[in-house]
């Protein structure tokens, strides 16, 4: 078992600049050691903060797994955000100036590379025992340096807290394949990344979510001051009394998190009043409030005997909280403490205030109720699932448990019947009327200053109709109708309205997805609009791509041109209010990070606690062939030119997702596979977003042919560019659509692909959901399903011209999105055709694999399988 060396450091300088000192506490198993030292000449607090971890890491005599704790925002931001960019710029800042203290930053960079270091930030002078000890040691070093000439650069003392001889803190034997464990423990390096920002309307502060470290899965609620950049912890679930040791989530909340692929726990969502002075959230199905200004005391809501609260939302005035429990809508008055139920289901299959499966999984609508701006009424979804087929998901590892029943609208079968009602505080309910028979999908809903606003779609998705609602009568008026002979894309954030009431929407025009304000197109054909993030007056905040590998942040107002608010390269998003912008960013060099930008341009980085992965992807990006297929290529770092290398394709390959983007974290797993001895090729083919409507719609009627053809074309182009790619040893791996593509590749093109790993693959499209499948293939029974499904391919015996290739299939048995029946049907067909294969069933695992042991070993098992199959 790996024993971690815990290091706690601090620095001091009195006065600053002046004589300085540093201190460190090192803990290994049952043993501890204290280090301190000083600098008698003029130095600075920042230099001492840097010196402390350098000297502590130098004290380790062998390679070690280290958890290093610092209270220095300077060190934290440098390590997690600035250092990689400084190195790429030759140790210069973005302004071209030399990096301050670059001598120590270089020493620290070298010291960190000798170990497996995970960084943690602790708040200084807050009672943290080890931090207080490091602080006292730093003060001792500073006093010694200031009182007399320092005898040496480093002084050290040792303190043993258990009997036994420990002359030094030993380092661990170098650990092999540490990336899979770190990748799993950090939830793909997503923990510790700030997210979910809300800016106060006056721009004075922002509220956001972040875990306390890069390995802690419990999400906390924080705020950051726009004037100073100072952060404040508002809610730490670990400090909330009365909660169970592990989260006990209601079934509806578990389903909500599965739909949005939420991997963390704790406060994973919150809502605020219009003034951003109070927030509401749920923990283990219990609702809580917290003041966002003043004393942030967390208060539970006394909702009586109600259990398993889902989606609590505070009204804009801060007076009431609405939530769903037992499929009914509840209202809780914060002043009186009373709870009422204004919308109660009249049948077992009816719910109020929840999103139906198709909306949550495929339309991006996870909500089922919306407050009016005045807080005097709600727009509430009524969902009747009685027409939807009942599917049962069993856990074979626990045959004593009753299978879970889910309502799953498979292609060609009935959807849930979704309606809307206006519900007032006194319980008056007014149905919203539209032609739901012709437009059965409620794609979006909301309530702005002009009233309720919806968008609805027919089942064939060839129209999106935008409707305004009269809240007094429930009647609807069509504001706009967009049609397309193939399908109309639901773009996140639209429709919306400006302060003047102008409709903001997105249209496909001139080969581009373009932003429209009223009747005026605001963006040119050079930008592909991805989504709308917000509206301030008449100004629209949105994201768009000039190049498909990047998504930049823009704003635009009528009569103006789009203003770039982020770097052009990378993946960026943001939210703004009161002149303050919070921008979140990813690029090819650094971890995902956030910065608060004030109206005068002052930037305050928001702390990021994500663990550094220990490798740099450094993909070579290409645009291959006549279709300019965006492709990333990774060669092993120790590759010797002239040596043939087995090839691994690592795509997603399907709609609504990209792999070839300018984001470091998007490529970490591909780089790790490359370091295992493969040349890795990742390609976004037809159907992927960011290339314009025609490129996306090229897969209509055939989810197999174009995507597979593009993978083969990119592979051949990559081999032309990199002659060392061994095309006699080609593997492919993927998950979800990527898993489908992997199985498709080895079954239909065994002349090109020699092994595949298919994770959670769709194998029979008639088993997948209505909204997704019918958009591309129409109703079941046509040739499009025959072309796209692969069970028949698996059932065909291999021949000399089409030999069988090794295939590993992985599937979570608790998956309620791509159910395990897909893999079981594929396996049965393979067996009937005499095709040997491996099936790895994951008990208790859904479409996600957040479990640490599962996620880690999946990577290792795939490498082992591919090495054996390809002889790598």
Structural notes for this entry:
This protein is an alpha+beta fold and 872 residues long. Among the domains are: 5-175, Nucleotidyltransferase, domain 5; 620-870, 3-Layer(aba) Sandwich (Rossmann fold), CATH 3.40.50.1820. The protein is built from 16 helices and 50 strands. The protein has an 8-stranded mixed sheet. Strands 5-4-1-2-3-6 form a 6-stranded mixed sheet. Helix 1 runs parallel beside helix 3 (102-113) and helix 5 packs antiparallel against helix 16. The longest helix is centred in the N-terminal third of the chain and has 19 residues, at 129-147.
Average residue-wise pLDDT: 91
Silhouette: globular
| Helix residue percentage | 10-25%
Q: State the CATH class of the domain at 620-870.
A: Alpha Beta
Structural class: alpha+beta
Tally of helical segments: 16
Sheet of most strands: 8 strands, mixed
| Number of separate strands | 50
CATH architecture of the domain at 620-870: 3-Layer(aba) Sandwich
Low-confidence stretches: 148-177
